Amino acid sequence: MSKENWFTRLTQIKPHEVLTTLLAFLFIFILMSSYNIVKNARDILPSDWGDTSRAIQWSYTFLASTIAVSIYNFFASRTSLKRLVPSAFVLFALSFLAIYTAFSLNFDGAILGKVFYCWSSVFSLFHLSVFWSYISQHHTKEQSKRLFGFINTGASLGGIIGPSIMIIFPENMQLQNVLLVTAMALLAVLPIIYILNRKYEDVEFKDDSQTKLSPNPFSGFSELITHKRLLGIAGFIFLYSGISTFFYVTQSDLLADHVKAERTELLGWLDLVTNGLTILLGIFAANRIARKFGLSTSLSIVPIVTAVLLVVLSMNPAVLLVLALQVLRKAGNYSITRPAREILYTGVDKEARFKTKPIIDVAVYRGADVFWIWTLAFLGDGFLNLGLSSKLLVGAGVAVIWGLLGIYLGRKHEKEEYESN
C-alpha cells in the first residue's frame, strides 16, 4: 500500500485535498497557539473576583462583543470576502499591539488588566468564527464530515504548543510579551490566507464583484431572527455557554485558594492533557462518528456525557476532579461537537456564514455568558445562596436540554441533505 493511500485511509483526506487541508490545519494551529498563550494569561485573573464582580466584567465583554460584530458586519457589507478575512486578523494584531504599547507607557495596570481580559475574551471567539466562516465557504457537506475533524486537530496542537510555551518560559511570558507574541502570530497567518485564496477553486473568489455581501449592515441580524436553522444554532451556543460557565465558575472558585503561579501551572497542564486527547479523538473518532452514526450523535454525545459528569461532580466537587472532568468535556467538545457544529454552516448561504455566524459565535455566546454568570450569581451569593453541588445539578439539567437540541439540529440537517440528494 502506498504512503498516500495509508494517509488517506487514516485521515480520510483525498489526495487532491491534501494541500488545502494541511494549510487550513496550519492556519488554525497558528491561531490557537497564540490564543492559548493569551488564554492562560487571562484565566488566572477571575479567581480573584467574586460572583458579582465576575458578572459585571462579563457584561462589559458582551457589550464589547456586540460592538465588535456590528463593526465587522458593517465592513463585511462594504468589502470583498477576499479582503475581509485577512483584514480582521490585521486589526486584531493592531489591537493587541495597542494594549502592549499602553503597558509599555505605564498606564494603570489594574485597568489595563480588565481591558485585556475583556478584549481577549472577544478575540477568543471572533478569530475562530472568522476562520470557520472562511473554511466552510470552501467545503461541501460531504467534505466537511471528512475534513473538519482533522482540520480542527490543528487547534488542539496549538492548544498544546501555547501552554507549553507558558510552562517552559514562565518568566519570559509576562502579559506584555504575551500581547506581542499574539500580534506577531496573527500577522503570520496572512501568507496562508493568500495561498489558500489562490488554491481554492471557488468562482466567487475569482470575480471580485460577486464576493461582496449584502450592503445592508444589519442583514446578519435579520437573518438570525428569521432563519430557523440559525436560531437553532444560536440556541445550541446559548446552552453550551451555560455549561461552560458552570464549569468555569466551579474551576475558578476551587482555584481561589491557590496562588497565581500554581493556577497558571495547573491550567497549563489542563490544556496540555486536553489538547493531547483532542488530537487523538479528532484524527480517529470525530469524522468517523459523524459519517457512521450521523450528525445528531456528534452534536448530542458530549452534552449527554457532560450531564452525567456534572452529577458526578456535584457529589465531590474537588479541584482535581473538576480538572479531570474538564479534560473529558473540553476534549469531547473540541474534537467532536465543534466540528459538527461547523458542519451545520455548510447548509446556509455565505451571507449567514460571514455575517450571521460571527453574531452567533461572538455576540450570542457572550450574551449567554452574561445571562448564565448572573444566573449563577443569583443562585449563589446574589440571592438563593445555593451550594456548589446544587448549582452543578442545575447545570446537569441544562446539559440534557443542550443534548436534545443537538439531536434535533443534527436530524434536521441530515434530512435536508438527504432531500437535496
Automatic annotation (TrEMBL):
<feature type="transmembrane region" description="Helical">
    <location>
        <begin position="58"/>
        <end position="76"/>
    </location>
</feature>
<dbReference type="Pfam" id="PF07690">
    <property type="entry name" value="MFS_1"/>
</dbReference>
<feature type="transmembrane region" description="Helical">
    <location>
        <begin position="230"/>
        <end position="249"/>
    </location>
</feature>
<feature type="transmembrane region" description="Helical">
    <location>
        <begin position="301"/>
        <end position="325"/>
    </location>
</feature>
<protein>
    <submittedName>
        <fullName>NTP/NDP exchange transporter</fullName>
    </submittedName>
</protein>
<feature type="transmembrane region" description="Helical">
    <location>
        <begin position="269"/>
        <end position="289"/>
    </location>
</feature>
<keyword id="KW-1133">Transmembrane helix</keyword>
<feature type="transmembrane region" description="Helical">
    <location>
        <begin position="111"/>
        <end position="135"/>
    </location>
</feature>
<dbReference type="InterPro" id="IPR011701">
    <property type="entry name" value="MFS"/>
</dbReference>
<feature type="transmembrane region" description="Helical">
    <location>
        <begin position="147"/>
        <end position="169"/>
    </location>
</feature>
<dbReference type="InterPro" id="IPR036259">
    <property type="entry name" value="MFS_trans_sf"/>
</dbReference>
<keyword id="KW-0472">Membrane</keyword>
<feature type="transmembrane region" description="Helical">
    <location>
        <begin position="175"/>
        <end position="196"/>
    </location>
</feature>
<feature type="transmembrane region" description="Helical">
    <location>
        <begin position="88"/>
        <end position="105"/>
    </location>
</feature>
<keyword id="KW-0812">Transmembrane</keyword>
<feature type="transmembrane region" description="Helical">
    <location>
        <begin position="21"/>
        <end position="38"/>
    </location>
</feature>
<feature type="transmembrane region" description="Helical">
    <location>
        <begin position="392"/>
        <end position="410"/>
    </location>
</feature>
